[in-house]
Amino acid sequence: MERRIIYYPTIVIPSQWTKWTVLYFDKVISIIPENLNFKEVIYPWNEKDFRIMKILMDEGELERANPQDLIGQREKWRSVEMFEKEFRRIVTSKRFQSIINRNWKRNHKWKVHRDKISYKVYEFLHNQGLAEEDKQRDWILMEEKTSLLYMSLLAKYLADVNPDFTIPGTDRNEYENMIYGASSHQNSFVSLDIKFMNILPIPRWDVPINDILRFKRRRKDELLHFREIIDNIYREISIAENEREIKQTVLSYKENIERKVAELRKTMKEENIKTVLGAFKSLLDIKSPALLTTLGVSFAELPSEIKIPVLGMTAIIQIGYYLVDKINQQRAKLRTSPFAYLYYAEKAKVI
Question: Which domain holds residue 7?
Answer without folding.
Answer: 3-66
